[in-house]
Amino acid sequence: MSIKINYLNKTGSLSSSNLVLFANEKFNISSVKENLSDTEYSYINDLLKTSDLKKNLFVFEVSSKKKIILISIKSNLKTSDVENLGAEFYGRINHGKNSDYFIISESISSKQNNFLGHFLHGLKLKSYEFKKYKTKKDTRLISINVIGNKNKPSSQTQLKFKAIEEGTFYARDLVSEPGNILHPDEYARRIGSLRKDGLKVNIYDEKKLKKMGMNALLGVGQGSIRGSYLVTMEWNGAKNNSKPLAFVGKGVCFDTGGYSLKPAKFMEDMTYDMAGSAAVVGLMKNLALRKAKINAVGVVGLVENMVSGNAQRPGDIVKSYSGKTIEILNTDAEGRLVLADALTFTEEKFKPKFIIDLATLTGAIIVCLGSEYAGLFSNDDNLSKKIFDAGEKVEEKVWRMPLHKNYDKLMNSKNADVQNINYVGGAGSTTAAQFLQRFIIKNTPWAHLDIAGMAFSKYGGALNSSGATGFGVRLLNQLVEENYE
Predict the structure, then answer these.
(1) How many Å separate Cα 412 from the centre of its chain?
(2) What CATH number does the domain located at 2-153 have?
(3) Burial readout 19-38 (b: 16 or more C-beta within 10 A, e: otherwise)
(4) Which of 164, 230, 349, 409 has a CB 3.0–4.6 Å from the CB of 204, allowing a cystine?
(5) Residue 102 gets which letter from DSSP?
(6) How many whole angstroms separate alpha carbon 419 and alpha carbon 403?
(7) pTM of the predicted model over 0.90
(8) Which residues contact 134 (CB under 8 A, 6 or more apart)?
(9) Rounded mean pLDDT of 384-395?
(10) Which CATH class is domain 160-483?
(11) Which positions are catalytic?
């Protein structure tokens, strides 16, 4: 099924068309009376008198061919509330046939900036489905026709929303792909195709990575027949040499756990262990499409953590790109090894204004925060506050968790500089973040987002159906737009 949005200055008679009208929170419909026949007005008015007006919208079937959808605009709505309202509207019109709906833009009376733009944005985000491998295709089309120029989003605003949607959907597509399709070789190829959007893409293969000394990343992927890669995406939109904003993502395309094997139950979900990298790729695509006026770089490490005669063993010691040695006590604590090399490389090569990494890193963060918040760990209070505030505005929420030097003793190794897991127990997410912090060598402002509970939803959320959420794209776009453009 697809959604098409049309903006029309005028149209013919709407007497037999599905209408979408907006009213105040008390559902006073006198302001939209001119859009209704006398019979329709009386019918709806009578039903409203006995209805629960706490609802956000009502669907009135005034004939076999016509619906009138009445939506309440409550006072003090946040932009995220408006987007959720658009998603709720989509849920009420997503039925089993082609349909057209006509939104009367003049019925919108709201002080909320760009109400209609956010409403339609929420609708589009909610409409996403991954049905690429269904043999029976859903050919339904829902047309949303906006009548009139009042409250119409500007062309620039439409472009911005479209770029965010495309970036988010691209991230969701990547996470949704099965492991036999989106292995590291294919993933690197797909990122390379984003050059057409204006990104400068460099792909470092195993031969180059070995020469560079990225043994932590390479160790994770050495058990797979697929290649391992580090891929950089650069967007230069500031037209100057200002330091870029850097975003780093964990891209473990499939995670068996290696010799520290995961339980078989739900292992199929480990196709989404590359969701951190997908958020970075989706964000960079979005920034390029909307021609963001900043310099930014995305860096992703792409590997497959498999079991074979060549796979990494518990007890192995590797030398990271930073020069620090790491003892591998658990091969299922692999994401931090990928990020360790990627973080040091990003800091050294690009000398960024800040680094934000995203990763489905620990199950412990789900124990802490469930599927409501991502865990935020940072060495910089100012950056943390900006990320938190951005998350609140787009409802991709984060919660700051502690980092402290006293946790270092849990990650110190007897045989190397650091070990990759805390075997004493407890503080699983914090010790993982504490591990990553050791690979920020030059005290660059840095934040780590553990998105293990947010990247994939079994039941769906306000702006997504069940499956991949694309968490991080909208959050980081808001951070950039609000603070750095």
Answers:
(1) 34
(2) 3.40.220.10
(3) bbbbbeeebebeebeebbee
(4) 230
(5) E
(6) 17
(7) yes
(8) none
(9) 98
(10) alpha beta
(11) 262, 336
